Amino acid sequence: MACEPGSADGRELTDAQHREAATKLGRVWERIGFEPFQCGVHILDCHLQRTQDLLAERREEFNAQCRAWQAQHRP
User: Fold this and answer.
1) Is the Cβ–Cβ distance between 43 and 35 less than 8 Å?
2) Burial, 73: exposed, middle or buried (Cβ in 10 Å; 0-12, 13-18, 19+)?
3) In a 3-state reduction of DSSP, which class is residue 2?
4) H helices within the chain, ranges in order?
5) Rounded to whole angstroms, how far apart are CA atoms 30 and 44?
């Protein structure tokens, strides 16, 4: 799989805003196994065990955050 950051909502970004957003998005993508390739493109080999492990870790982090939120907002 290959991804390149861009505006998803049609907003026009300055070059500086685009670079900042692309950098932040790249860091998020790397947390689930994407690797920088070239010219801002990131690639992901969906068949690697590492990718599956990273996705499982992110899912568990998300579930833990959901449980914490629910615990704080129960009547």
Assistant:
1) yes
2) exposed
3) strand
4) 15-31, 49-72
5) 9
Band (62; pLDDT cuts 50, 70, 90): very high
- Extract the tokens encoding 29: 């993508």
Rg (CA), the chain: 16
Q: Which residue has the tokens 């994407």?
A: 34
pTM of this prediction exceeds 0.85: no
In this structure, are residues 5 and 25 in contact, taking their beta carbons and an 8 Å threshold?
yes
Domain ranges of the chain: 2-72
Q: Positive or negative CA dihedral for 47, 51, 52, 55?
A: negative
Can you tell me the mean pLDDT for 1-10? 81
